Amino acid sequence: LWTWAAAVVVVAAAAAAAAAAGQEKRLLVGMTLVPGAASTGAGKSATPLINPLFLHPRSPGRTLPCSPDSLPKALACLDGSPPAYHLHRGSGAGARGWLLQFEGGGWCNDAPSCAARAGTRRGSTRLMSKLEVFSGVLSNDPARNPDFYNWNRVKLRYCDGGSFAGDSEFRNGSSVIYMRGQRIWDAIIADLLTKGLAKAEKG
């Protein structure tokens, strides 16, 4: 009886050790709020979008979407909170590789649905988790993500309700819903350019 019980304990311990070895270590990456994108209060008018082209630093014949200094400050999630992303830096041979992952979440289709969405994590960075688990293609585990584990990996938080494509707002009395996806996209890319994206060689 004791021999059988001991064997069960050994097998159970071995199974637990194997399961632990097979589990991916959780990589938690903090949120970065877009610089200059201070929360836009209700009732404030948005600044017109200025989006000039500027030369790529390594290829004079190429242009990039916008200069970081030219971006407007009136860009915001549906509820007026500042947009955000999560970045885990690359290293070694992958230091100039960049992978950008867009967070999904569908669309809001009209003012009522966008207003409802503004009060959720799909429309406000205030309600989002400030730490994100990087797994799959965002993992830094070479066994699980051999192609991109040492690249710069970015998760773009989705809070505009229109797939980073809109540039308008809806006003109803003192309430404002901001649909500034294009501005959010421009601002995030501009910020990442200053952090090495401008020198990307793979992506």
UniProtKB/TrEMBL annotation:
EC numbers, comma separated: 3.1.1.-
Example GO molecular function: hydrolase activity
Taxonomic classification: Eukaryota, Viridiplantae, Streptophyta, Embryophyta, Tracheophyta
Signal peptide coordinates: 1-20
Species this chain originates from: Aegilops tauschii subsp. strangulata
GO biological process entries: cell wall organization
Keywords: Cell wall, Cell wall biogenesis/degradation, Hydrolase, Secreted, Signal
Enzymatic class: hydrolase
Protein name: Pectin acetylesterase
Function: Hydrolyzes acetyl esters in homogalacturonan regions of pectin. In type I primary cell wall, galacturonic acid residues of pectin can be acetylated at the O-2 and O-3 positions. Decreasing the degree of acetylation of pectin gels in vitro alters their physical properties.
Compartments in which it is found: Secreted, Cell wall
UniProt family annotation: Belongs to the pectinacetylesterase family.
